[in-house]
Design brief:
Blueprint: E1 18-19, E2 21-22, E3 25-26, H1 29-34, E4 45-54, E5 58-66, E6 69-74, H2 84-111, H3 116-158, E7 164-165
């Protein structure tokens, strides 16, 4: 495909950079780090986002004001408290406890001894404990997934905010 020069043109475009200023001076990284870290509320005015990495805290920040004070909050994803792998491990622990109970019951049948009653009760308690742990972990995992989905939707909206720059 050939484009003739009579059909091409050069245009000058303007770029707007929003720099965050405090008392007339561009905000520095040191000042940015000193902003209080807080969750915004319904009355907060969202100013924009800042890309700046603070070790072990975040790399994408929401800047907002509330009651006349400027705040920041990390928008980086929160790690899940419970992973799917952890749930699988608990499922394996329940299977293992069930196998243990089954073995003790079989030994009791084979040897027809009442000595195994205490072992059976202990195995049953262990199985119930593992089942409770598994249910708790499953509930926490499902809760984390829901929270993560809701947070993703909310923070996707926040990511549409204008980007602010601070001095290097």
């Amino acid at each position: 495909m050939e484009i003739e020069t009579k059909n091409a043109s050069l245009d000058t475009l303007a770029v707007t950079i929003l720099a965050l200023h405090v008392s007339g001076k561009q905000m520095t990284q040191a000042v940015f780090k000193q902003l209080p870290d807080k969750m915004e509320d319904d009355d907060s005015e969202l100013w924009g986002t800042v890309r700046y990495t603070i070790k072990d805290a975040g790399s994408l920040w929401l800047v907002f004001s509330s009651n006349g004070t400027l705040y920041r909050r990390a928008l980086d994803p929160i790690p899940r408290r419970v992973s799917k792998e952890f749930v699988r491990q608990n499922e394996n622990a329940v299977r293992s406890a069930m196998d243990s109970l089954s073995s003790v019951i079989q030994y009791q049948k084979i040897y027809q001894s009442n000595d195994y009653q205490d072992r059976i009760k202990e195995a049953e308690k262990n199985l119930e404990k593992e089942k409770e742990l598994l249910e708790g972990e499953k509930d926490m995992y499902e809760s984390d997934v829901l929270i993560e989905k809701q947070r993703f939707e909310y923070e996707n909206k926040l990511s549409q905010l204008r980007q602010l720059f601070i001095a290097v």
